[in-house]
Design goal:
The structure is a single chain. The chain is of the alpha/beta class. It has five domains: about 10-110 and about 200-290, P-loop containing nucleotide triphosphate hydrolases (Rossmann fold); about 120-195, Arc Repressor Mutant, subunit A (Orthogonal Bundle); about 290-390 and about 565-670, P-loop containing nucleotide triphosphate hydrolases (Rossmann fold), CATH 3.40.50; about 390-555, PCRA, domain 4, CATH 1.10.486.10; about 670-740, Thrombin, subunit H (Beta Barrel), CATH 2.40.10. The chain is about 45% helix and about 15% strand. The protein has 29 helices and 21 strands. Strands 9, 10, 11, 12, 13, 14, 15 and 16 form an eight-stranded mixed sheet that branches. It has a six-stranded parallel sheet with strand order 3-2-6-7-1-8. A five-stranded antiparallel sheet has the order 20-19-18-17-21. Helix 14 (about 295-305) packs antiparallel against helix 27 (about 600-615). The longest helix is centred in the C-terminal third of the chain and has 23 residues, at about 510-530. It is globular, with a radius of gyration of 28 Å. About 40% of the residues are buried. It binds a DNA duplex through helix 5, helix 9 and helix 26.
Length: about 750
DNA sequence: AACCATCGACTTTTT
DNA sequence: GTCGATGGTT
């Protein structure tokens, strides 16, 4: 797709060559601000890259007066690579990075002004959760009532919106007062420890700019052009941050597709791209609607589907390419039948000369992969499941990382707690409790507290502590004289992690040991790359290690999807930005896709539809849609109607393979009012195991009476009035209700 | 302190 | 069904 070659002499003709008219307009737009609505497969990255080249060439810009922001490291790396191809070495000094990477860089530069220690640490969500758990325990809250995950979500949601504890109204629903207290303590904890979570990177820099207009002005003057990729995914704080950065002289270019906005649930605001023209009156909007990826049939289906959304800027994808095959729809008897169908058609594809890595199998939720994997294994087809646990999130890797963190900062309590008894060295819960108590009362870090306590200690725990201190100190002493890969090896060996792993039985042990080896090669790779970056460090671990830790914290470890000679399985969310000649979109069932938790509000439902749109537009040549009439879920069997999204695709584009089944068509609209729920329940009939007014038994809530119901299959819920607990909505798929 | 059994949860995910 | 957390037991 990309035929860019290094040009000996780059001129405008070369930059614009091979681009269609709207692409050229976007690349060379003179408007103060620019919004590019870039449909799927319309050459978005290409336009972004060529625009940067055009700007540098025509506006005589210094390369470092351009700032290009993306969401993922992968996108940033790709962009830098392609700019390098066009502009050569000039791309080196250009500010290209993720929101978090760039704010991290700014934060390092201005740590002092932000009241941060020079060696501030970045928390990943795992670290964050651990801290929150500790705080909840410290406050002596019941973890049942104040769930750590929800507290984390509470904190992150507010920070992503730019709200500190101090900004919050204290007039909140009672259940949130707990979260408020956790938030307050969490803020203090991070402040004290020099800990920075992901949201803090953005929020911290934003606040710095608010408090120090001089610093802000410096950045405003430095960047003549700011370009933002995937603008539809920006959240509130990212938007505020960008808004602040745009001074009177700044030009901003945003690129995105409101129809592919699928991250509303984690705070992304489609409004940002929708309202751009109002917010930036001197702006031009250009639509890229010519698609270079899919057949006409696929695009027609995608266009038809997305037209059911109201909240959109509007656009129609088209192609000069072939009409292509119709989409095929298969209604499986159950999820295994669906999987067999997928295997069958994959085989057919291979027989016709297709390749394994042409194939992408996409689904709404991870759990769906199991049945498909099973069938693929039986058929001996090579596949890989993308998503799930990231490399650096694996327990054994995090253990090693925690040791490395401790070497940089012994007062990193989170890291210490993680590894003080991993591998087991006799330091149990009681000892740990003692250490925590002492740390709390004497205002010490756990490291300090442990050292003080260990002096009077004899026995197993005491020996374990001494051994642990000796290990850390010995490794610390080596930092200035060994390389980072050597250090990593030492940690793996000397900590006893490797030896301990080897003694553990279980099939996963081998994979874990492999992971540790892979970590060493990742570290080696990091050190090699370091030489080519601007921040050249000495080869020794004392200099490299802090950089490495920051890098890893900001690295999702995105795996390269493209090359592997195998079938790719992934969720629709992870498939965004990818393309496959042959795509299976599985599990098109009401309740699963659209997901039952998105059925009740229009906004969520439209996001589901956009997700479906993303799925359809991944396909280049052939697209299969499928659903299962019955699907096993958490041990239960759910009966689902085919997804409404199927109906939203014109019949003329669909070849129906096996849909002569017993399942009735989808509900045309979500159930809204409670009275209609009530009616619905009465008429639900066979698949609804309870009648109105029936007495039922619940293992936890006891006896109750059915007073309402809604939905069917996986989304079926009943309302029950319990004697003790009052009225509750219970999902039939989860609740173990028995009729009395 | 380590191990085992039982219980419960269960959309999507980058930084 | 399966993973992870928890609580009770050894």
């Amino acid at each position: 797709m990309d035929t860019d070659l290094a040009q000996p002499r780059l001129d405008n003709a070369a930059i614009l060559a091979g681009l269609n008219a709207p692409q050229q307009q976007a690349v060379a737009a003179q408007a103060t601000h620019l919004r590019v609505i870039a449909g799927a497969g319309s050459g978005k990255t290409r336009v972004l890259v060529h625009r940067i080249a055009w700007l540098v060439l025509n506006k005589q810009l210094a390369a470092d007066s351009v700032l290009a922001v993306t969401f993922t490291n992968k996108a940033a790396a790709e962009m830098r690579k392609r700019i390098q191809t066009l502009l050569g070495a000039a791309a080196r000094t250009m500010w290209i990075g993720t929101f978090h990477g760039i704010t991290h860089r700014i934060m390092r530069e201005h740590a002092l002004a932000m009241g941060l220690p020079r060696n501030f640490q970045i928390l990943d969500s795992d670290d964050q959760l651990r801290i929150i758990k500790r705080i909840i325990r410290g406050l002596e809250f019941d973890e049942e009532q104040v769930e750590p995950k929800r507290a984390q979500h509470f904190i992150n949601r507010h920070k992503d919106e730019g709200r500190r504890y101090a900004h919050l109204s204290h007039d909140v629903p009672p259940e949130q007062t707990y979260f408020m207290q956790v938030y307050e303590r969490y803020e203090r904890h991070c402040q004290r420890g020099g800990l920075v979570d992901f949201a803090e990177l953005l929020l911290g820099v934003y606040e710095l700019w608010q408090q120090r207009p001089d610093i802000l002005q410096g950045f405003q003057q430095r960047f003549a052009h700011v370009l933002v990729d995937e603008f539809q995914d920006t959240n509130a704080i990212q938007y505020k941050w960008l808004r602040a950065l745009c001074g009177p002289q700044t030009h901003i270019t945003v690129v995105g597709d409101d129809d592919q906005s699928i991250y509303g649930w984690r705070g992304a605001k489609v409004e940002n791209i929708h309202g751009f023209a109002q917010e930036f009156p001197e702006s031009l909007t250009i639509r890229l609607e010519q698609n270079y990826r899919s057949t006409n049939a696929i695009l027609a289906a995608a266009n038809a589907l997305i037209q059911h959304n109201e909240a959109r800027l509007g656009k129609q994808l088209w192609t000069e390419g072939v009409k292509g095959e119709l989409l095929s729809l298969y209604g499986g008897f159950n999820e295994l039948d669906e999987a067999r169908f997928i295997v069958d058609r994959t085989r057919k594809w291979l027989q016709q000369g297709g390749a394994l890595n042409d194939v992408g199998i996409l689904y709404r939720s991870n759990a769906q992969s199991r049945a498909i994997e099973q069938s693929l294994r039986q058929a001996n087809l090579a596949y890989k499941v993308y998503g799930g646990l990231r490399f650096f999130d694996r327990a054994e890797i995090k253990d090693v990382m925690a040791y490395l963190k401790l070497l940089v900062n012994q007062h990193d309590d989170t890291a210490l707690e993680r590894v003080i008894n991993v591998p087991p060295r006799g330091i149990g819960e009681r000892t740990l409790l003692q250490i925590r108590e002492h740390a709390k009362s004497a205002q010490l870090s756990l490291w300090q507290a442990a050292q003080q306590i260990s002096t009077g200690m004899t026995g197993k725990a005491g020996r374990g502590l001494v051994q642990f201190f000796a290990l850390i100190e010995r490794l610390m002493a080596q930092l200035p004289s060994i390389t980072l890969p050597q250090l990593t090896q030492q940690v793996i060996q000397d900590s006893g992690l490797l030896a301990y792993l080897k003694t553990q039985p279980g099939e996963k042990t081998y994979a874990r040991i492999e992971n540790l080896n892979e970590l060493t090669s990742a570290v080696t790779q990091f050190v090699e790359n370091l030489g080519s970056l601007t921040e050249v460090s000495s080869q020794y671990a004392d200099k490299n290690l802090p950089h490495f830790l920051a890098e890893i914290a900001l690295d999702a470890g995105e795996r390269d999807v493209q090359d592997n000679q195998c079938i790719k399985l992934m969720t629709l969310h992870s498939a965004k930005g990818l393309e496959f000649p042959l795509v299976f979109l599985a599990g098109l069932e009401e309740g699963l896709f659209p997901h039952h938790r998105s059925l009740n509000t229009k906004e969520l439902l439209e996001e589901e539809r956009r997700l479906c749109y993303v799925g359809l537009t991944r396909a280049m040549r052939k697209l299969y849609l499928s659903y299962a009439e019955k699907r096993a879920f958490s041990g239960n069997v759910g009966i689902n109607r085919p997804s409404r999204f199927i109906e939203e695709i014109p019949n003329a584009l669909l070849e129906k393979l096996n849909t002569n089944n017993t399942v009735r068509p989808a509900l045309s609209a979500p159930v809204k009012s409670s009275s209609s729920m009530f009616k619905q329940a009465k008429h639900l009939g066979s698949e609804f195991p309870f009648k109105m007014g029936q007495t039922v038994m619940h293992p936890r809530f006891g006896e109750g009476v059915v007073i309402g119901g809604e939905g069917s299959g996986q989304m079926a819920r009943v309302q029950v009035r319990f004697a003790q607990t009052g009225e509750k909505w219970l999902a039939l798929a989860y609740a173990k209700l028995t009729a009395l």
